[in-house]
Design a protein that fits this description.
Elements: H1 2-9, H2 18-48, H3 57-84, H4 111-127, H5 130-170
Helix pairs in contact: 1-5, 2-4, 2-5, 3-4, 4-5
Length: about 180
């Protein structure tokens, strides 16, 4: 993992053009919003065959719409904060130059990850069922948290040091409920 972290650190501390930042997000969009949701959906759909839970379709649609109304604005707001205040992107090849602790980042250290998994819930419901959506969200959370804990947080500690350590203590990992930070 340290090789991946060292690779990502090569991209820090640089000024990037708007065009480069836009292009740098392409692989992330392809991987995290197209390929991984498709794979996660297929796995979740298969696993849902073993769970016998029937929910009225109207209830599923209400949950799906609610999830979209939360996830899309949350992810957009977080991206905007990274772009404007952090002068970068969520892409590790065009990272922020500043630690962003405003906007949704004042409530949650990982609003894009949280939004993405709520989005996975909506996709699973849309294409199959609530059970598939919940499984999509769960698998997405497991994979996302694994990446954040093994790579992203270590890289952020190297880049932002004690400021990031303080941010970790003061801001919840993945909750939009104020005051629920980790106690360390």
């Amino acid at each position: 993992m340290s090789n991946i972290i060292q690779f990502f650190l090569k991209f820090t501390g640089r000024e990037y053009s708007t065009l480069y930042k836009i292009i740098s997000m392409g692989p992330g969009i392809l991987i995290f919003l197209i390929i991984s949701p498709l794979v996660i959906f297929q796995i979740s759909r298969y696993l849902s065959l073993f769970i016998n839970l029937q929910v009225p379709r109207l209830a599923e649609i209400i949950i799906m719409i609610s999830a979209l109304l939360i996830s899309i604005p949350l992810m957009s707001w977080a991206l905007f904060e990274l772009w404007i205040k952090g002068e970068g992107t969520p892409a590790p090849i065009a990272p922020t130059n500043k630690l962003v602790t405003s906007g949704p980042y004042s409530l949650c250290r990982n609003p894009i990850e949280l939004g993405t998994n709520i989005y996975f819930l909506a996709l699973g419901i849309f294409f199959d069922s609530l059970v598939t959506g919940i499984l999509c969200m769960f698998i997405g959370l497991v994979l996302g948290i694994s990446y954040i804990k093994s790579i992203e947080e270590k890289e952020m500690l190297i880049r932002f040091g004690s400021t990031y350590r303080t941010y970790i203590r003061m801001t919840p990992f993945m909750s939009l409920i104020p005051g629920r930070a980790q106690k360390k």
